[in-house]
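Hi F.,

I've been meaning to write this up properly since the lab meeting, where we talked about keeping a consistent format for the predictions we share between groups. The idea is simple: the sequence comes first, exactly as it goes in, then the structure tokens exactly as they come out, then a line or two of notes. No screenshots and no reformatting. I'm using this chain as the first example so we have something concrete to point to.
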Amino acid sequence: MKIKTILVSQPAPTDEKSPYHELARKYNLKIDFRPFIKVEAVPGQDFRQERINILEHSAIVLTSRNAVDHFFRMCKELRLTVPESMKYFCVSESVAYYVQKYIVYRKRKVFIGKSTFADLVDVIKKHKDEKYLVPCSDIQKAEIPELLDKVGVKYTNAVFYRTVASDMSDIKELKYDMLVFFSPGGIESLRKNFPKFDQNGIFIAAFGPTTAKAVVDNGLRLDLQAPLPEAPSMTGAMELFIKREAKKK
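Output, unedited:
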């Protein structure tokens, strides 16, 4: 088998039943985890300069746990009291559940998409009279403003946090058979931390079209792009790839 060691550019899963652990056991792999990017807060002082009035909005669009954390952090920094009437539009049930860390769930109006942002927009377009605030990072998926523009709602994109490269100076060389990436920021971090990186026989896997494009745009060889029609998850796509490579002589 050609693939024995894999580096996944995300934090290690805490669940022992994680598909990554199952994959490692099934194919006798060594899978390491290391986040290539980290999130930094935009200070309240910097946010004030954008002249965005949070309380002018009647609804908040939450696309991730980071968005939830940094929205409420910013409100605390700016000493704002979020009114009981504020509505929350969450991209998934897990994000909606996470909001309960900050609000009394039953007293607020929470709307939930199935899993994708397109699903959430189907919910948003039923509430066109709201004025939406979208807390985001400096690297936002292009589909978010595109879909909101398409349905014609009033919204404000607001950068509450930034995505930056992690410090990986403790790793001298990437001695792995495969590297797995989930965002363009991960590829930028690879270039920043390992400017002399030579791909050679290292396989690169990317999740999603924007990450795949970043691989190619940085002059690297894209070996696996997930999801696949027959494998919607990264681990599923990796398993198919590993089995295919094992058959090669």
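Notes:
The longest strand covers residues 154-165.
The mean pLDDT is 93.

If this format works for you, I'll send the rest the same way.

G.
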